[in-house]
Amino acid sequence: MTTPNEHEGGYPPDDASEIAELEALLALPSGPEAVGESIADATLSGADANTLDQGRAASPSVEVAGGEVGDEDDEYEDDDAPGGVLALLDGLRSLTGRAPSVARREVDQATSWLGSNWVLIPLYPLIAVVLAPYGAGLLAQRHWTWVWDLDYKTHRAERRKAARAAGEDAEIRKDYAALLRARWFATVGLSLAGFVGALLFIQFTPWWATWAALFALVGSMGGYGIARAPWLAKATGRKAKAPTITIPFVTEALATLGISPEPSKRGLPGLEILGMRTLRGGVEVLVDLPPGKTAEDVVKLRNRLASALRRQKGCVWPSGDTEVHEARLVLFISDKPLHKRDAVKWKHAKSGATNVFEPIALAEDVRHRDVTATLMFNSGIIGAVPRMGKTLALRTIGMAMALDPRVEIHAYDLKATGDLDSLGPIAHALRVGDSTDDMKFIRDDLKRLVEDRARRAATIRGLSVKEKKITSDIADQHELGLHPIGILIDECHIAFTDATYGKEIAALCEDLVKRGPATGIMLWLATQEPNNDMIPASISRACTYRWCLMVMDWRANDVVLGNGAHAAGFAANNFTTNDKGLAYFRGEGESPALVRGAYIDIPTSEKIVERALIARTEGGWLSGMAAGEIAADDDRSTILHHLIAVWPENDPAWPNGKVWSEVLAERLAEHKPTLYDGWNATQVNSAARRHGVKARDVKGRHNGTEGTRKGLVRAEIVTELGTDTTTED
């Protein structure tokens, strides 16, 4: 089997018999009704189901990963498509719908080439004039190939071979003849229309417009010839063009994986390619695999499939369509790897509001379609190694919540870098830092939310409604207090493993993630250490949305995406450091979808929050810190500052500058009882170690007891603080 070459014209040697065989069938019918029927047959025939013109019934949106993927107009037709001339017009509409995608790809390729050969640009006008006939010939050849459906000759021969065994060969020949008849009809019609249009243009426009149109035509033909001239590509160092994606080429590629198009010895069918279409950013191929094969079998071998297709792995994205059956494969081959695309712009960045009860765009899939999620009644977990876009994803969730003025936002930035500070003007609670008092604040805030969850449950129980659940209309009513609550915790593993409050914080989060969604509480956790030691399994298993960027191994992958995800081929550990922002996004009960998250930088997020603040102020939805009800988190002091406050430089009881930690625990408890009441030496040492100060063996005497115990050195605390002038107040 050979791959068609778009640069070689004419018929293959064995075409003659097939075309002669069809000549008798190609006679156009005489009556208009017969013409309509022929065109309908050509458009709806099974033979045409394997061409670029084939489509599927349009649907406004498709469920992906618990959310929806929409905005796809160029769909495959079904058997209910209009017949006659309407079918031809519908086919032309599909063709014109694809034109922008094809044109965009051609422009991208030409721009890339010109950028690397700009020194030769002054010579290109002359080259374009010389190569204009060559370009026109190539276009004519491509049209001739399309009219006779030569790209799919091999595939059609295989179908005829199988049909001949079943006695259906004549039907396929008839369908193919109808297809060619319709294409010739379109060719002749468009040619006549173009000829008449050209005559009218020449007759009724100034001479300079005619010459301008002629120059544009010659330039276009020449440009096409330049872009397609293999000898010129070699001379200028232009990269060779990847093989054209055709159905025979894809069939060959799948055959290298052991998936044959030939029927088995027991008579079971081989793989069948149902259709191919050009989408924005690439080509999609629809395949039915042989019995016993599943789409997951292909997903696991994506690197081998990319090799067979002569593409980068980042350009080849196989997935399944389980709504049809397990053997349905949807293969998307993109023009460029996802990480080389422009950043995804968030749809609500400049205008518009959100509603957490409805799907909200958070990302884009490989087909440039919006990936949406309904935040209400769901919690989520985001996992990735550092610097791969984890906090950006959490920020996008925060912005989606911000633009719904009813959402009460509680944000805890344990990375302490200020990535969530833009939420400050509207947040009910915002805490930045990982000190002991930060952990206590988070513990206390979560306690209040758990108490409010119980109140909410009682309120819902007392509602006189058909179904005991919060609706958007119910959330609008201030007096009920059932507005949505969103909790964002960045680097949540720090909170869960805190020596003092970790277990308590984990227990509170477990309560909120399990029973909170039913009462309108949404919890989103982000971590760079997705494992069962850092995030309790009882919490991660209850998160319905999973967002996994690059991780280091399959264990971390499955903690985020769920058990078996890696074995099924959804392996975020295969991402590289170039794949920032790429993730597998999984919803409840759905297979993960490959997405690229929307990019919202800090200045953009601040502008979004400005809009959100106006909406919340007008609607009376400000609360907590944003409304001045809770003191803002302006205290940046840590336990080191508190120790210095209770430890004078010339301590008469400890003149050597070293004090037992148990003595320091007593002083801290007396100085700040709300923070340190009940602390012991171990807790003081653990908290100090997190800020770079280690416990030492200290000899001393206290309350009549003398010995060597663990303690701290004041000079080391001073050194660690350096020039930090922050005070405990």
Automatic annotation (TrEMBL):
Please indicate which superkingdom the organism of origin belongs to.
Bacteria
**Alphabetical UniProt keywords:** ATP-binding, Membrane, Nucleotide-binding, Transmembrane, Transmembrane helix
User: Which amino acid positions bind ATP, per UniProt?
Assistant: 384-391
Residue ranges under compositional bias (Acidic residues)?
69-79
Segments carrying the region annotation (Disordered) are: 46-79
Q: Which Gene3D superfamilies match?
A: P-loop containing nucleotide triphosphate hydrolases (3.40.50.300)
Q: Report the protein name in the record.
A: S-DNA-T family DNA segregation ATPase FtsK/SpoIIIE
Protein species of origin: Promicromonospora sukumoe
Its ancestry begins with: Bacteria, Bacillati, Actinomycetota, Actinomycetes, Micrococcales
